[in-house]
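Tokens in:
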């Protein structure tokens, strides 16, 4: 890990993978002290991907909301 830290290239883009799906990829790089000014509304399982690639968001089926009773009885 030290070798990578010492000799590795620095990431200077917001989403180095190009298709990061979760919220840590929705903020800038380096992240500000407070990433979000308000709590973001989550409408899918991959909000950052939907934000950066709306053409892919239009192709995927919308997630149906799960009610609290279904989550309470679910056994994984």
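Residues out:
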């Amino acid at each position: 890990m030290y070798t990578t830290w010492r000799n590795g290239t620095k990431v200077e883009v917001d989403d180095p993978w190009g298709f990061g799906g979760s919220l840590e990829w929705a903020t800038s790089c380096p992240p500000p002290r407070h990433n979000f000014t308000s709590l973001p509304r989550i409408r899918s399982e991959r909000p950052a991907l939907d934000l950066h690639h709306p053409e892919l968001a239009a192709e995927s089926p919308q997630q149906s909301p799960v009610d609290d009773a279904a989550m309470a009885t679910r056994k994984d």
